[in-house]
Design a protein that fits this description.
By secondary structure, the protein is mainly β. It is built from 2 helices and 16 strands. A hairpin with a 5-residue loop joins strand 15 and strand 16.
Length: 281
């Protein structure tokens, strides 16, 4: 059986023992046999000399298999790349490009090599944007779990004011433009579609470059209080129309009260896009 012997000498210089120098010490031990070798070993201790021989046999070394740090980090990167939602829109102008950076782990970390594929998961409270944490779990014979820091930078397009815009102004396409930024630091209700902005009314003034958010917008009033409107109702399968007076302002889709000047009845209906009211009955 193959083995490796390593000898280290300790003690005073062999120059004081010339009869044991130049390999004669080893020769003496080999010739005198085990018992003589023991006596010689004791003599060496007495003289302050010691030769330590370490014999390394197959299987004696630590054979524990360690999970590599790179494999854990690769599992996190693959998980995040597959989990980050991809923005798809009709205009294809809000496409999001995401970059994943996996944090470092302590190089002294020693985890048993997993016998089955590692599984990554998103712990409670973690998110798929900005600075986050991903768990990596080994469910094998010797299970373990480790948590890895990561950072997700998602560059997405959003709408900003192209020029100074006034309160009450109805937005047109030329009033806004697209900008690009890390979406993790944008307001949650930022707008990404021009169709959701054009035709809306601003609730307050916007300076150039300001992000256009959904809570800044409202539908403009389609009818005004006191305006004469046509009231549409259904009776026995027939569509009946009558004249009414709006009792409040109302945007498309809003419910408003309308007074019939002839009967003086007050009914409620939904404002239509054409500025009339449908009672739905």
């Amino acid at each position: 059986m193959a083995h490796k012997t390593t000898c280290i000498s300790y003690g005073r210089s062999l120059r004081r023992f010339p009869h044991w120098s130049d390999g004669k010490l080893t020769q003496t031990i080999n010739q005198n046999g085990l018992n003589s070798g023991r006596a010689t070993f004791k003599a060496l201790i007495g003289f302050g000399l010691l030769c330590v021989c370490a014999v390394q046999l197959p299987g004696w070394a630590d054979s524990r298999a360690i999970q590599s740090i790179d494999s854990i980090r690769d599992t996190v990167a693959e998980f995040l790349q597959a989990s980050i939602p991809v923005s798809t829109t009709s205009t294809s102008q809000t496409h999001t490009d995401s970059t994943v950076s996996v944090g470092k782990l302590d190089p002294r970390l020693t985890l048993d090599r997993c016998q089955i594929p590692l599984k990554a998961f998103l712990p409670a409270g973690s998110r798929l944007y900005g600075k986050t944490t991903v768990g990596v779990r080994c469910g094998g014979h010797k299970p373990w779990t480790v948590y890895v820091p990561a950072n997700i930078v998602s560059l997405g397009k959003y709408l900003i004011a192209k020029r100074s815009l006034q309160r009450g102004q109805i937005l047109h396409l030329e009033d806004v433009e697209y900008a690009q930024q890390d979406t993790s630091i944008l307001p949650r209700n930022h707008t990404t579609e021009a169709d959701d902005v054009v035709g809306m009314e601003l609730k307050h003034q916007l300076s150039p470059g300001r992000t256009v958010t959904a809570n800044m917008l409202t539908r403009p009033d389609t009818i005004k209080k006191g305006q004469q409107v046509t009231i549409y109702s259904r009776s026995g399968g027939l569509l009946v129309s009558s004249v009414g007076i709006a009792m409040a302002n109302g945007a498309e889709g809003a419910r408003v009260k309308v007074k019939n000047p002839s009967s003086r009845r007050i009914i409620e209906g939904i404002v239509r896009a054409d500025g009339n009211v449908d009672t739905g009955r």
